[in-house]
Amino acid sequence: MGVYRDYISDDTDMQTMLFRYSIMVDVFNAHLPAELKCQYHLSDDLKKKILRQPYSEQNDRLILLFGMGIIGEATLKELVLHNKTDFLSDVIKLEDRVRTDEDKNESERLSYETLEQIILLCANSQKFDEFSPLPFEQAEKLISNSHIFIENGFVKCDKDMAMLVNESGGQMGYYDENSDSIFIEKPEYVAAALADNYDVSSETAPIVTDYKALLCYSYVYDLLYGREFIKYACDNHIPYDENYAAAYEKYLKKIKLTFNIKAYTKKRNICGNKVNYFDYAFNTVENNELVQTALNADEAYSAEIVLDVNENYTDAELTVKALNKYKNSRQLLDKTVIEIMHGNNILLYIYDNGNFTAIDSTSFRNQLFDFDKIWSVIQLCSRDGSLKRVNNTITIPQKYLDEIEPNQREYAERMISEQYSRMLRNRRVNPLVQSLNDLKVAAEQNMEAIQKEKAEKAALKAAALQARAGRKPGISLNENSESENNGG
Questions:
Q1: Which of 10, 70, 119, 269 is the most buried (most CB within 10 A)?
Q2: pLDDT tens by residue, 303-322
Q3: CA 146, CA 153: separation in Å to the nearest integer?
């Protein structure tokens, strides 16, 4: 028998290294300081199994942590015998944390139980392909979240967070101890497991596998509208990286609490009591046809409203706050249509007498009448002079009125009245146009008188003028001649 052959062989198993360390202790005549004591000893069965394991610095440090009472025997067995991955950097970080905590108050230190769960969590994230790798610092952040629970090195969440993870597309599943593997469950089965009787400590509570996503969730989950942002980020494919928190801040300020408001003042009153785009649009008419209609916002009334709130409100409540802030910043005109863009939502309101009333977008943009048909009839009546004014009311002959659908005639009447009112306003604003138009009308009527005089041959000029004065005038609403057809 030989000492080297039997005890100090060239093998690098734990037993050989143990003998080497024993000789070194004697060489240095080393004695442990009184405060440096071994807290635990291995059971005989586990001792034999570990001594046959290949030596590694990782195993060396784990055994030291066990002896110091920081991790238990079950954890040591799991990490040395059943996990062959490299997580040495996390073990070193754990030792560093223990060293740092020695200078802290008891309340500021991480308990050994917590440190044990962290190192199990880090090791499992390396062992199973279903998990995203989780370094020690990130595992420490996860475990500090009150909604997250670590059990045997796996992550579970309380009911609300687990539901959010599942709804946001995060993979969840279960650990199968018999096969030492992770099984990913379908979202609908996870949802069933998160029913009313959900117990985070039960075996039916699913575990989370995407630590990278969960870490990002934990940053914002309890912040203002943080849970809404998580769903928004998922829908908009915002990556789970170091920019996630910044993306949340941008979402909060630029989307959730920002309202872009446009205003459309009323241009005409054709639609009566109905709030319809036609009364607010800029219309382009060519050859008696409506070729273009466009809602152009009044820039003086457009605004970006940013709210400053410290608690969660519903979107409806936020909208009310935005409208009130907007109203206080502008002198709004009654009957103004307000368009609010909030995220992907567009809402319409009518402002009247200091109040905002929601209006249906579809009804607002619905075409109430056939403009081209009505306008062509009006122009036809205007050209042949069949429009009549009776007590400041413009009337249209029944034969022309019959060409318009009964349910659209009220719009025709308002269009005529609107056109006539505009003509009168133009006269008041521009006297020169009024005079030229009057001259034109008088000239045309004078020519008719001459022709009539020649036809009758015996009529006197005074009689012809008197006859014209007794005739009721017709009304012209032609765009190029907005004056009344008065006798001249």
A1: 119
A2: 999 999 999 999 999 999 99
A3: 17
Q: What tokens were used for 274?
A: 């109905």
With 50 as the cut, is the pLDDT of residue 456 above it?
yes
User: Which pTM does this prediction carry?
Assistant: 0.72
CA distance to 86, 132, 174, 217, per residue, from 177 (Å): 21, 20, 9, 28
Between 315 and 483, name the one with better pLDDT: 315
Decide: 88 and 61 in contact? Cβ < 8 Å: yes
How far apart are the C-alpha atoms of 384 and 398, rounded to whole Å? 15
- The whole-number pLDDT of residue 14 equals 84
Give me the domain span that covers residue 118: 32-128
What's the rounded mean pLDDT across residues 196-223? Answer: 93
**Can you give the pLDDT at residue 482?**
37
Cα R_g (the chain), whole angstroms: 43
104 and 208 inside one domain: no
Give the pLDDT confidence of 158-170 residue by residue, as tens digits: 999 999 999 999 9
Q: What is the SS3 assignment for 148?
A: strand
Position 316 scores a pLDDT of 95
Report helix, strand or coil for 259.
strand
Helices (H), 102-241: 112-127, 136-143, 159-167, 187-193, 211-220, 226-235
Question: Is 402 among the domain residues?
Answer: yes
Residue whose pair of structure tokens reads 């073990």 in the numeric block: 91
Kind and range of the H or E element at 357? strand 355-359
Question: Where does a domain end: 222, 255, 288?
Answer: 255
Distance CA 124, CA 99 (A): 24
- Give 81: exposed, middle or buried? Use CB within 10 Å, 0-12, 13-18, 19+: middle
Counted domains in the chain: 5
What SS3 state is found at 43? coil
